[in-house]
Amino acid sequence: MRTDEFDFALPEALIAQHPPEKRGASRMLCVQGDSLEDSRFADFLHKVRAGDVLVLNDTRVIKARLFGEKQSGGKIEVLVERVLNEHEVLAQVRASKSPRAGSYLKLSGEMEVEVLGRAGEFFHLRFLSEMPVLELLERYGRLPLPPYITHAAEDEDEERYQTVFARESGAVAAPTAGLHFDDEMLQALLHKGVNIAYVTLHVGAGTFQPVRVEHVHEHAMHSECYEIPQETVEVIARARLAGGRVVAVGTTSLRALESAAVREGDAAGIGHPSASPLRGQSGMLQAGTGETRIFITPGYRFRVVDVLLTNFHLPKSTLLMLVSAFGGMEEMRAAYRHAVEQQYRFFSYGDAMLIEKKVASR
Predict the structure, then answer these.
(1) Which residues contact 154 (CB under 8 A, 6 or more apart)?
(2) CATH of residue 286
């Protein structure tokens, strides 16, 4: 499969630079097979059923962008990719010349940081302050907006580039399908009888990277860590037995669930969580933590998720490949053509899509 099969022309004017005035005020394109319905996100309440399970990613975006200088005085920019422990991180470092292992950085005029070495494309850094790194980032860091948003983070972004249910700090990008929800919608869903469950997948900066190889199978995914609570496994199992569907809010929730349900040997680079699997119609969904490089492309057999709420994704991106696997290649091409023609807003602050899983013909 060629990467250019997932390319499309997107007018720059359709890339949303700011969120809608109010959470939940976005449009929503509903896709069921080759059927397309123009709707509003407010109608999401009527698209889910009592007994369904809504799975939300509760990761919280950290203020991962820092500026400073090297010992030589050269200016640098640091983007934390992953917090390893209370004092160490993996990070991208932008500088005219890469810092060497054993050298020191001074960030935000306050923090001394030692360069421990390299870990692939990332730098392994140690913050020398006694204060935990998450507290330092909250105090001195800046919110890392996606590269296609052209303005620097503002007060509006501090609130709106964060879901209302964010609680587990560690992401450097928001699980953007979750940005549509406000507390009122969540309460209305519960009142209707929809179950709400949580997973955590700390989104990395690699989510914004286009696939640059000619053939899809040559692409190497970045690793991300996730956690599936036992309560979530049990809620899904009970709902399945009662005929309910699993509705993943965002590709990150879907990737966490599918990573925790893939059997050993099915795909490379997938962590195997601890705890016993809960067997049933939901497959081998396991509670616990893991590392995943799961790369979902057309032909993948989904084990857990039935319905996906997501935003519109970048051309040639792994996320566009994922939704094409979920809803069908031709169906997604038609949906994206329709979205461009109808001037839907794209990417993180943009409009939503509600996709029902395409059932393979026998």
Answers:
(1) none
(2) 3.40.1780.10
